[in-house]
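ok so I'm stuck.
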Amino acid sequence: MKIQPNTIARCAASLVCAALLSACAAAPERTPGERFSDCAGCPEMVVIPTGSFAMGFDGGEPERYKGPVRQITIARAFAAGRTEVTVAQYRDFVNATGYAAAVGCYAWDGKVARMNDAASWQDPGYGRELTPEEPAVCLDWTDVKAYVDWLAARTGQPYRLLSEAEWEYAADAGSTAVFPWGDDPDAACAYANVYDLDAADAIDDSPLTPVNCRDGHAGIAPVGSYPPNKLGLQDMVGNVWEWTQDCYVMPAPAAPLDGSPVITENCDRRSVKGGSWITGIQRQRPTFRGRDPEDRVSLVFGFRVARDLD
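replied:
not stuck anymore, here's the structure
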């Protein structure tokens, strides 16, 4: 935060302003692309540059219109988690607070989503032990929001979820192609954990069509397994869907246009973005808008955090 000299002169006689100026001077000024972490075990954050982009797509699946296309200008500085929040990071929160997350989790078997009543974020139903660096999954929107609120209280910093506009802006990373890596879906495996030939080999009779490549993971992957995009973020596409702050509205409303979340009085669904390791490639486009109830708990739903910098 930059403070003009005339502001300093006007505030010199005020103890309140002096304290404010001291706090501002102590806060580091972040630069786009910079990585930082506010505490041991906290998510690593990446500073996102401000800018404008065309959000949305004039088309989509039946009853899933992804437009209209609108120009969004993000002028406020913020940072986004370099990766999705991990099992280890969510465990830190639970251990510190005793929070009881939802139990019972939907698992997509390639044909239909089935409820596993015994599954939870601690045992999603992989048939093996979790590893600390896998994304935390089987969490509903309330479970995710509880972690974000705790992180904000722990660090004294304004942590939150990304808005849908911020998420799409960060995932596109300046690209105007269909996918962040270009227009070829079969090039996905070099950049993301999507439904590919490896995943298809592990699932019988799936109606999904895999991309014609292998990404090295038949299921979920540890966070950061694939290269970062041009903004320094990893796993924006694929691996697990990510909850956002927005209430889902279709078609997308004309406002806000500043990257703020869409909040409605009756918020029966939240927007989820990015697709997963078992999602058809057409839903891996950053413009695709998932829409799920706040209490939906799924094997392929995770999240990443954001933090205001202004």
